[in-house]
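Agenda item 2: S-adenosylmethionine complex prediction
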Amino acid sequence: MLVRVGECPFPLDPAPEVLEVGFGDGRFTAALARLHPQRRILGAEVSAASVARAIRRFRREGIANVVVYHGQATFALRNLVAPRSLKQVYVNFPDPWPKAKHQENRLLRREFFRRLSTRLAEGGELLLTTDHEAYWRFAQDEALASGLYTVETPPPPPHHLTTKYALKWKEQGRSFYHAVFRKKGEDPDPWPPLPRYPMPHALMSGKLPLLESFPKTVVRFEGGTAVLLEAARALPEGYYFLTHLDEEDLVQDVLLEARPSAHGLYVGLARFGAPLATPGVKAAVAWLVGFLEGQGLKVIQRSY
Ligand SMILES: C[S@@+](CC[C@H](N)C(=O)[O-])C[C@H]1O[C@@H](n2cnc3c(N)ncnc32)[C@H](O)[C@@H]1O
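Presented output:
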């Protein structure tokens, strides 16, 4: 049920036809799944606690047509969703980012609508329900400015007002706003999935130095940063390097390793945790290989 991005195909196969962004406790997703048992639904949620709660709900309720991605909806859309495959995208009560200086954090911006158009099927639609009038207007302006959508604003369907946040705001007597953004055109940029590299590494010769210390190192690359946080000795010989990666719509903590193998010293990504070998991993491995070259080791072969 939970997508492990290091191990699944991009895009997912079979392709989801429905995406729910920020499903929270998953009650709307579960209702949708029961209403359309033949549809495959992908839910994307950044909160780990919400993901755990929702998965417990789906298991308890015997829901079998939902897959869950823990992370940014934009990452899911770009990498897990096939071009022109989505019939519906649901966004219920997105974080409104009410302050003007935080508006760039809003999800439903022009850039998002442009990218979404490449993953929506012909006539596919995004349905927004919110209590935040300013965000509702903002989203309409952004979608119209993209030139790729028609916009309608009917009253919210009653079953959209049964989410956890809908019930909370109902109690406070707030008003609700709804919009349907229907695709009428497509952005020419196909927004391809992130490139992936099979286990980026180098084979090196020479003796691993005994590191007295390892300074925290920030590696910048196009699209993000990798931070090699610390090194730890591996037994009987070698090192692990705890590395934090922050790149387009994706945050990962991975282990790099330098350890003897049958073919020489292996310096590269460790399999631990089923990581996704992204451009950021490649940049971090390239930095580590350069660091060890600086310590007198020689590259026999590069695979990155
Ligand atoms: C206000 S809550 C609404 C939750 C639920 N839809 C409801 O109506 O009860 C917004 C949710 O969106 C999630 N979220 C915010 N930004 C996100 C993003 N970029 N991708 C996926 N989830 C996101 C938050 O973690 C949170 O659970």
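Discussion summary: Residues 1 and 299 are 41 Å apart (CA to CA).
Owner for follow-up: CH.
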